[in-house]
Predict the structure.
Amino acid sequence: MSAPPPVMLPAAVNAHSHAFHRVLRGRTHTGRGSFWSWREQMYRHAAALTPELYEKLATAVYAEMVTAGFSAVGEFHYVHHRPDGTPYPDHDMEHALARAARNAGIRLTLLDTCYLKGGIGQLLSEEQARFADDDAADWLARLDSLRAAFERTYDPAYVSVGAAIHSVRAVDPESLGTIAGQLDPQLPLHVHLSEQPGENRACSEAYGLTPTELLAEQGLLSHRLSAVHATHLTQRDIELLGAAGANIVMCPTTEADLADGIGPALELAGAGAVIALGTDQHAVVDPLLEMRALEHGERLRSGARGRFTPSELVAASSTGGARSLAGGAGLIAGDAPQPHEDQIHVRSDSVRTIGAEGEQVVLAATASDVETVVIGGEVVGRNGIHESLGDPAALLSDALKELE
Ligand SMILES: [Zn+2]
């Protein structure tokens, strides 16, 4: 008897990535580890990055993503200055990431990030100096220059620029207002939102508002906004994000790893928000596990099965992510933009997937079952091996050695 044919699915969109966090995988659990001890370790690795090292590391990370079934990535990028806080002469770190994406064949939306403060009412720490511009106007000017540089250099179907606000911790209300008034509405805009209860407490103490209410007050809620995590929300927050038709980028494996909590994904979708998925810190790079963790989180917090259907999980992973990275296109259409026709073929004859029916395979398969990855009509990955770069594990091994 012949083997059952693979299940064809749209390729996954990774709507939230910090490529360099891949260095931390399997290294942050000593002595148990907290969110804040994880952040200390992450800062140390950020300090060591140079454009050359970052291109090498990100090439490996993006190769891993491609072979796992992702055809596009939104890179939430804040390591944009030198360690002492001075700018590079020619967007060197951003070109490093763009070249890495071109090496790996993944579509990149580089979400250049505004990061101005060390916390609410706090100055930047020494490690944070390289994440920061002088003020919102300075960041907006650098973003314009970056867009022009990328438009001159890369095919826009593969490399484009978007924007991000690190969080309400790192950007003050006045600067949020400047960004709302001056940022090109065509650009996608991402923000980390209410990942930890500590952020909500600090925001409420300083401004008497939740982070979502603060974004609303400053005019930032819209279809082009993507709220990343959205874990600890009030009913009012859910209504505001839903009414705005915002995108919500859930990162379920990261949120589990960092003990963030489980966000109200189904309530947000019911209120009108659009769910997307991201692998964030890359403790796991596997779109199938991300889809499953979204649904499993829902089941665990509600005590009910079937919160999202398999089709809805596939949509979160593909069209939801595409809308999140599209910005103004989503804003004008008010709906999902036409996604790229990138595809993955998932084996239905492996020990994990044999017997699974159609799209239900997403609740059984892992990235190990991704047989073929097609981006822009070309096969880029096959059975875990990148067509031009080879085994991503070897690339990662080389890159990690240089970062020791
Ligand atoms: Zn993040």
User: Anything to note?
Assistant: Confidence is low (pLDDT under 50) at residues 330-337. The chain has one domain: 12-341.
